[in-house]
Fold this protein.
Amino acid sequence: MQMSKSIRLSEEAYERLAAHKRDDETFSDVVLRRAGERSLLDIAGILGDEEAEALRDAVEERRERRDRDLDGVARLGVDIETY
């Protein structure tokens, strides 16, 4: 037998929860899905050495591309908020 608990939510909290609810879900399902998301520690070791190295390379490449883009914007004197 599954126990249930009643909780009180503000209108804002209810609306936020409802916004994540799928048609086929109960509110309990939404809470479990949203609260049950994994932390980084839960997925540690999931990638093999080659996959991890490829991911590191991709992240580094993206950072370098971002830095080049930002340097170009700075050289042009463009306001970053309008870029």
Residues 49-76 form the longest helix (28 residues). Residues 10-44 form one domain.
